[in-house]
Amino acid sequence: MNAWTIPNLLRMYRSGRLSPREVCKEIVEESQRLRDWNIWIQLPSMTTIEPYLEQLNRDEMNSKPLWGVPFAVKDNIDIADMPTTAACPNFAYTAEQHARVVALLVENGAIPIGKTNLDQFATGLVGIRSPYGETHNAWQSALISGGSSSGSAVAVGMGLVPFALGTDTAGSGRVPAALNGVVGYKPPIGAWSTSGVVPACKSLDCVSVFTRSLYDAQLIDRLLCEQPLGFTQVRPTVVLVPREPLDWFGPYASAFQQAWERTVDAVAAQGFVVREIDLAPFDEATNMPYDGPWIAERWASIGNFVTRHPDGIWPVTKEILSSGQKALASEVFRAIHRLEELRRWVRDVVNESAILMMPTVGGTYSRDVVREDPIAKNRELGRYTHHCNLLDLAAIAVPAGQVEDGIPFGVTLFVPGERAEVLVQTASSMLSINMNDDCCYGREDKVAVAVCGQHMRGLALNYQLEDLQAKYCGSVYTAPRYRLYALNTEPVRPGLVRQETDGVPIEMELWEMSVAGLGALTASVRYPLAMGSIELADGRLVTGFTCVSGQIPDAIDISYCGGFRRWLELKGNTSAKDNIEV
């Protein structure tokens, strides 16, 4: 399979070199070949996909940002006319309508192609607690895939689909992302609808997404987020990391530790201030999902079914859920009050200038080893994830290199939920991750070009880049040495001005094009705009659109928005909203 990202798949559709039907047929065939990997519960088939293909109208390709893009869905999320099992055959029912998140994706042109395997009732972080088989790791079959969103992460890791929906209550959208080398984004609680999702722990549940690029995660968030979070002007400059020695485990423990130390050094090299903090408050929250009364909430969601069908429940799952019967009301309220204190502490520490970074997991195991000691090994995997939803944080798990035998290593970035929109861009700049991984820098016949205005995707002059066969590489930020102005032109265009004081980071798009293409683009630039050298947040110098300082009469300073697209959205420009990046 081709490891498609959303932009390069859409590019193939527009060029006519590929069709959604061809892509879906290839997924069906490859999924059959990988049947023994236990990725799917409802295997993709052309029969169930056909109605979605028939609904595609090529005239809508440019208006639907996910036109013809296939995606996988964890089997505790409803797809209309498909069974929802939550990995429990006795629980299965046929959904009458899509879950809200699935409906929104379908409205934007996406194609749900099948239901993926999971740890039963989304209880577990290992990927082996399912009567539908143990999901194999995308990189090494003998290793655990992580859970509970195991099948969704592996479907993306194996290149079957560009993105897949999971859920995340205590780490299920992040642990499998790290173990399969993909991006896992978990929004703030309530930002994405959980209507049509089988609850695990209802007050903490989130739908999550796995992607192959940061840009794709950002796009899905924009399409699914229904809880306005406001706009954060301050970009983090401080990266908080644990002070105390971390817990590393499994056969690759030392390699994971070394990868973490390399990552912290790399973040410091990007100019971020690395500051150590006490991990004890996070540890306290980490113990609450299974040692505290929140296990009682899991029992409240599914306990009646467990009581009626004791033989239909995975033994480890039943043991964990049944412990929720013991919680006392007084314990519940004490825990709630303590949690509010911890949340206030976290907001003071992870303030608007800071972001928290932890290893996503401290190691990994083979499926054989986890099978022998399932509960203890599961707890180790959740060491740096369990606290997240309880503390009302948003998080993104991102790849950060490899360790021995090509096994992926990853870290997770956390911020309070209301600041979720800084996660993707901060991950891109602090870890030097391209928003898409298919852009090549430094080739003799290619140059990287940064654009900040109407040449951005979905805006009025983007066709010029497409005509020059430029390739989109992702969003980036400038170094904090620029101001952005809205010029008095038609259509309105921004002017990027460098200044040594009072500058801020400005969002731009990075494109790759031929040297000849750059010459043609430069020839079209009109005063007071010019092509010049632009310093990015990671220290690179690239060619891009700038503005002649002092020659911007009647211009409006829009630097506070952080970028031109965001300014258009804030001023209510419907054409910008309707042209969501595709």
From TrEMBL:
Alphabetical keyword list: Hydrolase
Gene3D superfamilies cross-referenced by the UniProt entry: 1.20.58.1700, Amidase signature (AS) domain, Gamma-glutamyl cyclotransferase-like
Domain Allophanate hydrolase C-terminal residue range list: 448-568
SUPFAM superfamilies: Amidase signature (AS) enzymes
Domain Amidase: from-to ranges: 60-413
Gene Ontology molecular function: hydrolase activity
Superkingdom, natural source: Bacteria
Hydrolase is among the record's keywords: yes
Cited NCBIfam families: allophanate_hyd, PRK08186.1
Stated name of the protein: Allophanate hydrolase
The species this protein was found in: Alicyclobacillus hesperidum
